[in-house]
Amino acid sequence: MASIRLGCIADDFTGATDLANNLVRSGMRAVQTIGVPDGPLQVDADAVVVALKSRTTPPADAVRESLAALRWLQSQGVQQVYFKYCSTFDSTAQGNIGPVTEALMDALDAPFTIATPAFPDNQRTVFKGYLFVGDALLSESGMRDHPLTPMRDANLVRVLQAQCRRKVGLIDYRTVAKGEAAIRERIAALQAEGIAIAVVDALGNDDLLRLGPALKDLRLVTAGSGVAIGLPGNFGITASAAASRLPAAEGLQAVVSGSCSVATNRQVRSFIEAGRPAYAIEPLRIAAGDDVVAQVLAWAQPLLAQGPVLVYSTAEPESVKAVQGRLGADEAGAMVERTIAAIARGLVDLGVRQLVVAGGETSGACVQALGMRQLQIGPQIDPGVPWCWGRDAAGRALHVTLKSGNFGADDFFAKAFVQLS
Ligand code: ADP
């Protein structure tokens, strides 16, 4: 099996997919693993992204899990390590970006690394160390009031310094604009000043492409998913359609949706308006003890041969609130996730081999229920959402796509299957 060049550690599940998608689009064959694997990969890959759930856990747990991921990546012979966090630099007051970065630097004996969440394709830019979300400073964006990781300071040098023992500095946009040699010079100058981590400005993809070659010798890179577009060239890899090639799709087609986001509501409506069969799950019926899983599967079985079916709990905010008021938000969420995950498994038992899952948490529940541990990343359906391929716990080969809430065009569900054919 060819060696893996780039080993990545992502602090959440959909963020891992986002990074893997960028790597594939830049020519690397990428596999995403759910947690730290216990053996080698099942397929060839140039890059592997280990998906953790370490964004908001206590820093000591995030460090421990990230180091376990690092040990596995090292056992696979990776040449460079990439720690991936969110493009809005989501972190708690305690971390976890700083503590994980420093633990990885210690373990890799890395004297220097960079930190930049810039992702211009998604309107995340860094200017003079300040992070912008669209036209607003991070601290004036919706992230100001995030329930778990409120970001009240847009100055990333300050934010990261508060989480680190090492000194944090800046490589600003003027240096980045001059290209590789200037960036390398700046890195040397920062190191001479005792600075070990540098936030890097990037206003557009050109900046990220200029930055890439200057990072070739770093053992560790820390970033959002944007920096990934400039790295494959360092390994002699150029963009090609071959990187996203998956095994041929077969079997029946289904969509399960537990996302109540605005975009998903539109996608569900669009699928129904196109005349496709759809089954609405009512959370209160699950709570009342109805065997909804069996009812859904009995409904789906005769329809599957004619094309994709949709099973959804997707609802408008008023109806979600009403359910949450009756059952409690966490209980309702967990109950619906369990039900949809059991339906996904049942659909695969009925012969579904092409499965669209809508909803971040819902995706996690489905992938877990199916026992999928490795996902080979394929072609992008819509920005940030690729088809993936892997095997479930029973060894059945499946194409799955995991769509987080607000991603995807209105006709995403139909479009996904057309693309696969
Ligand atoms: P998104 O990516 O859109 O945020 P998630 O799957 O991450 O979607 O989260 C949606 C949450 O809402 C899940 O916990 C899901 O079980 C729950 N949920 C889905 N449908 C309903 C509903 N009709 N009423 C209440 N909660 C629901």
Question: What key phrases describe this protein's structure?
Answer:
single chain; about 425 residues; alpha/beta; 15-stranded mixed sheet; three-stranded antiparallel sheet; 14 helices; globular; binds adenosine-5'-diphosphate
Topology (SSEs and partners):
Blueprint: E1 6-10, H1 13-25, E2 30-34, E3 47-51, H2 59-75, E4 80-84, H3 97-108, E5 113-116, E6 124-127, E7 130-133, E8 136-137, H4 156-161, E9 167-171, H5 173-178, H6 180-192, E10 195-200, H7 205-214, E11 220-223, E12 252-257, H8 262-273, E13 278-280, H9 283-287, H10 292-300, E14 309-312, H11 317-327, H12 329-349, E15 352-358, H13 360-370, E16 374-382, E17 385-391, E18 397-403, H14 412-420
Parallel strand pairs: 1-3, 1-4, 2-3, 4-11, 5-10, 5-11, 9-10, 12-14, 12-15, 13-14, 15-18
Antiparallel strand pairs: 2-16, 6-7, 7-8, 16-17, 17-18
Helix pairs in contact: 2-3, 6-7, 10-12, 11-12, 12-13
The protein binds adenosine-5'-diphosphate.
| Order of the strands making up the biggest sheet | 9-10-5-11-4-1-3-2-16-17-18-15-12-14-13
Low-confidence stretches: none
Spatial gap, N to C terminus: 29 Å
What's the story with the biggest beta sheet? 15 strands, mixed
Helix/strand-derived category reads alpha/beta
Number of strand segments: 18
Helical fraction: 25-40%
Question: Overall pLDDT, averaged?
Answer: 95
Q: Helical element count?
A: 14
Relative strand content:
15-25%
Structural write-up:
It is a single chain. This protein has 421 residues and is an alpha/beta fold. The protein is 37% helix and 22% strand. It has a 15-stranded mixed sheet, with helices on both faces. Helix 11 crosses helix 12. The two termini are 29 Å apart. The mean pLDDT is 95. The site of adenosine-5'-diphosphate has 21 residues, from helix 11, helix 12 and helix 13.
